[in-house]
Amino acid sequence: MPDKSLHLAVALDGAGWHPAAWRDLPGPGEELFRARYWAALVAEAERGLLDFVTFEDGFGLQSTLPDGPDGRGDQVRGRLDAVLLASRLAPLTTRIGLVPTATTTHTEPFHVAIGIASLDHVSGGRAGWRPQVSPWSTDAALLGRRTFPELRPDALDELQGHVEDLFAEAADAVEVARRLWDSWDDDAEIRDVATGRFIDRDKLHYIDFEGRFFDVKGPSITPRSPQGQPVVASLVHDVLPYAFAARSSDVVFVTPHDAAEAAAIVGRVREAEAGRTGESLRIFADLVVFVDPEPGAAAARKARLDELDGAELASDALVFAGTPAELAGLLLEWRAAGIEGYRLRPGALPYDLKGVTRGLVPHLQEAGAFRLRYDAVTLRGRLGLPRPAGRYAEEGAR
Amino acid sequence: MSTPRKQVHLAAHFPGVNNTTVWTDPRSKSQIDFSSFRHLAETAERGRFDFFFLAEGLRLRELKGRIHDLDVVGRPESLTVLAGLAGVTERLGLAATVNATFNEPYEVARRLATLDHLSEGRAAWNVVTTSDAFTGENFRRGGFLDRADRYRRAAEFVRLSRELWDSWEPDALEAGDGRFVRPEAIGEVSFEGRHFTVSGGFTVPRSPQGRPVIIQAGDSDEGREFAAETADVIFSRHGTLEDGKAFYTDVKRRLAAYGRKPHELKIMPAATFALGDTEEEAAEAAAEIRRQQVGPQTAIAFLEQVWGRDISAYDPDGPLPDVDPDLSDGVSQGRVPIADRTAVAARWRALAEEKKLTIRELVIEVTGRQSFIGTPASVAARIDEFVQGDAADGFILVPHLTPGGLDDFVDRVVPLLQERGVFRAEYAGTTLRDHLALDSL
User: Fold this and answer.
1) Which residues of A touch B123 (CB under 8 A)?
2) Burial class of residue B242 in the structure, from the number of CB atoms within 10 Å of its CB (0-12 exposed, 13-18 middle, 19+ buried)
3) CB contact at 8 A, B119 and B90
4) Could you tell me if residue A120 is inside a domain?
């Protein structure tokens, strides 16, 4: 694959990223909680040769308020566990990467680590993990283990320490997961009948993690997975998260609004990466997309949804509404600013997903900027990340 | 006219990480590849089994301070694999063991409700508890509870989970009127217990079964009481007809106190099997499996757990150690401890002397032989006898080989149970509650 080739991912959530997108669903909302709905979406994404899909998640109900449910019934509310959803879809697909969100704030790092490693086993090396912090006091109350201050936009300064702690804890959680993923050497299973040994226990390693928030002994209960290290991908908006991504992630999702900002953010991410060893971060830009071949149609569709929702779509990422050719032009422009891939958030599902797979992808292919067929089997392979040796493997080989 | 015969329920246990699972056999394949899970699940579904069962252990077992290396090691996260299996099976129930000690109720309830949606009503939860700080070293919450407290915590855990599962009204998503959901149909949970304090709204709509099937495996008085109050299935370990009947009677009798009827709790003991074309062939197959399960090193390791000392210098094909057990410290971690080691050692010595047994022969003798040994016809008859005689409602079969260990049973025994009219030829319903003949919620 030439270097110029872009990476394309799609972010799946509910009926799409417009809060009113569910209104165009053919049936009742129950469909969003059925496997067949997601299976059709992932099959479409795989038909479009996309790198991977992500699945959003969170413990609390979706809300328009900064912290806690808003009691609204006119938008999608409710979600399935993203790791299980990804695993449910894994046997139905063969090439596309599956990257679920799981929180680092509440879920035990040991459970996340074996869950994602198991997803990697089930999918034959296509698993990723999008770690996410959960700063909300209302999420903490669902677990009942800790009390968090209420998240108020007017009091962010007071919350600085809280947020710093959450990111420090997130970095520890990813570190624990990565150590657990390496805690079995690839050749730990020996099945040596003569000595009666199933494993060579010198090739299993305690990780002995001790941190401010938790200690984890290890080793993992799950043997090393096909990718060795599943792909870690984080969405970041600020300097603190850039440092987190630089330390913990393989892929970073950023949210520039034009080419100049894209260049500036790429610069800041690369700065945060100073001192990082191994592969550099793969930088993806997030965009909300409404795509229609007919000029003006996408904007009209978005305007109609805005009206149904009673508000203009608000987003951290740039909202694009236009033709596949226009979108391709934008993606290629930002590529020149150092963006290596895109995570597109379809405004409405499945319509705008098809706009990507059947509209955008052919345009990019014609421009020689996107693959014509799947090459690598694993997600790491597709992102040009080599399969790393286990960090403890040499120690064990003494 | 005879009354309809009591129906047998069958489940398939994925081979575990103890010496019941034979890995030295050339037919033994990966314990971790999805293809192995898929093969066993598809075989169980072909046999019209009620459910497929995954065990769990959140820390690798240790012996003498080192990771135990003689048995199969390495398992996936249960719910993640079951979610994958939901995509390649259509009717088979999917049961995960999930520890109530090292998890939070909100998260477990949410994941189980998710599996129930993704499988369209086939999820089950085997509720287990642990009290060992050894496993706790992998988690934020350590485990330092005595047995009574463990059950109180588990009972509270399940009670809270049920509140969460019940918190969305069944028709919350049939909103109409320009609404996706009726927000007033999402109940606010506010739970204050001794172990958990939780408040807020659940994110998963009511699942197809209402809640997953609850399985419970404890055999103590507290365990039986917990099951009588809470469980839909008991995974028991009573191997003989007499023991089984006593357990069955005892547990079913406890149900009335909770306003429940006998059919609402199914009793399914674990069972192993060995088949042959003749009784003699089956007996020989059973003996060969036992020899595979108790290799020379395993025999020594097994004895060390009772003797509490290193006896690796002893010949497994020779007599028992002449030294007495060292009672100062346990050697095994992550396994159920053996209660009175001096008495066990004395009993074993007497047995070995009487029958002239070597160490390995003794271990083969004292550790469980197969539950069912015989021709397919005699095994089918025996299973039927247990069920009709109220010693069980069915069995959770534990094959000794991954992944083909259930093939023979499904091909040869299941048709005979079907001929007897005691096991379904086709699934009648779609949910696991349907298969288990439990009332819908």
Assistant:
1) none
2) exposed
3) no
4) yes
CA distance B195 to chain A (A): 10
Amino acid in the structure at residue B85: L
Residue with tokens 């197809």: B208
Q: Is residue A123 part of a domain?
A: yes
Superfamily of domain covering B9-277+370-435: Luciferase-like domain (3.20.20.30)
The pLDDT tens digits for A26-62 are 888 999 999 999 999 999 999 999 999 999 999 999 9
- Distance CA(B436)–CA(B212), nearest Å, equals 12
pLDDT, one tens digit per residue, over B24-83 is: 999 999 999 999 999 999 999 999 999 999 999 999 999 878 999 999 999 999 999 999
Domain span at residue A305 reads 7-396
Whole-angstrom distance, CA of residue A294 vs CA of residue B427 = 50
Q: Which of A56, A63, A88 to mutate to test the interface with B (most CBs of B within 10 A)?
A: A88
Spatial distance between the Cα atoms of A98 and A9, rounded to a whole number of angstroms:
10
Inform me whether the C-beta atom of residue A230 falls under 8 Å from chain B C-beta atoms.
Answer: no
CA atoms of A328 and A364, how far apart (whole Å): 6
Phi-psi region of B27 (alpha: psi -120 to 50; beta: other; left: phi over 0): alpha
Q: How many CB atoms lie within 10 A of CB A176?
A: 25
- Does residue A81 lie within any of the structural domains? yes
Ligand-binding site membership of A18 (annotated): no
Return the ∠ at Cα B11 (arms to B9 and B17), rounded to 5°. 150
Residue B331 has pLDDT above 70, yes or no: no
Residue A5 DSSP symbol: P
Q: Tell me if B84 and A87 make a contact (CB, 8 A cut-off).
A: yes
The CATH number of residue A101's host domain is: 3.20.20.30
Interface of A with B in 63-82 (CB under 8 A): 69, 71-81
Is residue A1 situated within a structural domain? no
CA B207 to chain centre: 23
Structure confidence at residue B176 (pLDDT): 84
- The answer to whether B87 and B95 are in contact (CB under 8 A) is no
Does the interface predicted TM-score (ipTM) exceed 0.95?
yes
CA dihedral B312, B315, B321, B326 (to 10 degrees): 10
In contact, B13 and B377? CB cutoff 8 Å:
no
Residue B339 binned pLDDT confidence (cut-offs 50, 70, 90): low
* Domains in chain A, number: 1
Q: What whole-number percentage of chain B has pLDDT above 70? A: 96
In the predicted model, what is the mean pLDDT of chain B? 93
- The first and second tokens of residue A192, run together, are 């040596």
Residues of B in contact with A58 (CB under 8 A): 203
Q: Is A57 annotated as a binding residue?
A: yes
Do β-strands A341-346 and B9-13 pair in parallel, antiparallel, or remain unpaired? unpaired
Cβ atoms of B389 and B241 closer than 8 Å: yes
Nearest residue to A332 via CA among A115, A85, A8, A1:
A8
pLDDT, position B85: 98
Question: Residues in chain A with pLDDT < 70?
Answer: 1-3, 395-398
